[in-house]
Amino acid sequence: MKIRAHAESHVVELDDGSRWRIYPGDLATTLSWKPETDLRLEPSGDRTSSHVLVNAADQSRVRVSAAGDAWPDGEVRKALKGG
After folding, report:
1. Predicted model pTM
2. Which of 13, 32, 40, 65 is most buried by a 10 A CB count?
3. How are beta strands 51-55 and 11-14 bridged, if at all?
4. Number of domains in the chain
Protein backbone atom coordinates (compact mmCIF):
# COMPACT_ATOMS: atom_id res chain seq x y z
CA MET A 1 0.00 0.00 0.00
CA LYS A 2 1.07 3.55 -0.64
CA ILE A 3 0.38 6.76 1.24
CA ARG A 4 -2.47 8.82 -0.17
CA ALA A 5 -2.26 11.59 2.44
CA HIS A 6 -0.16 12.33 5.51
CA ALA A 7 -1.11 15.96 6.11
CA GLU A 8 -1.49 15.56 9.87
CA SER A 9 1.57 14.13 11.55
CA HIS A 10 -0.48 11.66 13.58
CA VAL A 11 -2.86 10.40 10.85
CA VAL A 12 -1.98 8.63 7.61
CA GLU A 13 -4.42 7.75 4.82
CA LEU A 14 -3.50 4.81 2.60
CA ASP A 15 -4.36 4.30 -1.05
CA ASP A 16 -7.10 1.83 -0.09
CA GLY A 17 -8.92 4.70 1.67
CA SER A 18 -8.22 3.51 5.21
CA ARG A 19 -7.10 6.09 7.77
CA TRP A 20 -4.77 5.19 10.63
CA ARG A 21 -3.76 7.13 13.73
CA ILE A 22 -0.07 6.74 14.55
CA TYR A 23 0.94 5.93 18.11
CA PRO A 24 2.44 9.06 19.74
CA GLY A 25 5.74 7.37 20.60
CA ASP A 26 6.24 6.26 16.98
CA LEU A 27 5.75 9.59 15.18
CA ALA A 28 9.49 10.14 14.62
CA THR A 29 9.67 6.94 12.56
CA THR A 30 7.20 8.38 10.05
CA LEU A 31 9.24 11.51 9.30
CA SER A 32 11.02 9.84 6.38
CA TRP A 33 7.82 8.49 4.79
CA LYS A 34 7.10 9.70 1.27
CA PRO A 35 4.05 9.07 -0.96
CA GLU A 36 5.97 6.29 -2.71
CA THR A 37 6.83 4.52 0.58
CA ASP A 38 5.50 0.96 0.39
CA LEU A 39 3.69 0.02 3.61
CA ARG A 40 2.23 -3.23 4.83
CA LEU A 41 -0.57 -3.38 7.43
CA GLU A 42 -0.35 -6.19 9.96
CA PRO A 43 -2.37 -7.07 13.08
CA SER A 44 -0.65 -6.16 16.34
CA GLY A 45 -0.38 -8.15 19.53
CA ASP A 46 0.26 -4.89 21.38
CA ARG A 47 -2.29 -3.70 23.95
CA THR A 48 -1.95 -0.11 22.80
CA SER A 49 -2.68 -0.58 19.09
CA SER A 50 -4.73 -2.81 16.84
CA HIS A 51 -2.26 -2.90 13.94
CA VAL A 52 1.25 -1.98 12.81
CA LEU A 53 2.35 -0.36 9.57
CA VAL A 54 5.59 -1.85 8.30
CA ASN A 55 7.84 0.05 5.89
CA ALA A 56 8.81 -2.54 3.26
CA ALA A 57 12.13 -0.80 2.50
CA ASP A 58 13.64 -0.82 5.99
CA GLN A 59 11.19 -3.01 7.97
CA SER A 60 10.59 -0.22 10.50
CA ARG A 61 7.25 -0.56 12.29
CA VAL A 62 4.82 1.95 13.76
CA ARG A 63 1.85 1.12 15.94
CA VAL A 64 -1.50 2.36 14.60
CA SER A 65 -5.21 2.19 15.32
CA ALA A 66 -8.12 3.14 13.10
CA ALA A 67 -8.32 6.95 12.90
CA GLY A 68 -11.64 7.07 14.79
CA ASP A 69 -10.53 4.84 17.67
CA ALA A 70 -9.33 6.20 21.01
CA TRP A 71 -6.01 5.18 22.54
CA PRO A 72 -6.26 3.28 25.83
CA ASP A 73 -5.00 6.10 28.10
CA GLY A 74 -3.43 3.98 30.82
CA GLU A 75 -1.50 1.83 28.37
CA VAL A 76 -0.24 4.84 26.41
CA ARG A 77 0.98 6.63 29.54
CA LYS A 78 2.74 3.51 30.76
CA ALA A 79 4.42 2.90 27.38
CA LEU A 80 5.54 6.51 26.95
CA LYS A 81 7.06 6.45 30.44
CA GLY A 82 9.00 3.34 29.46
CA GLY A 83 7.03 1.02 31.73
Report:
1. 0.80
2. 65
3. unpaired
4. 1
* Strands (E) located in the chain: 3-5, 11-14, 19-22, 39-43, 51-55, 61-66
Cα gap 37→40, rounded to integer Å: 10
Q: Which residues contact 79 (CB under 8 A, 6 or more apart)?
A: 25, 48
**pLDDT tens across the length of the chain (83 residues):** 999 998 777 899 999 999 999 998 899 999 889 999 999 999 998 888 899 999 999 999 999 999 988 766 665 666 656 65
CA–CA separation, 53 and 66 (whole Å)? 12
Residue ranges making up the domain that contains 44: 3-80
Cβ distance 3 to 16 under 8 Å?
no
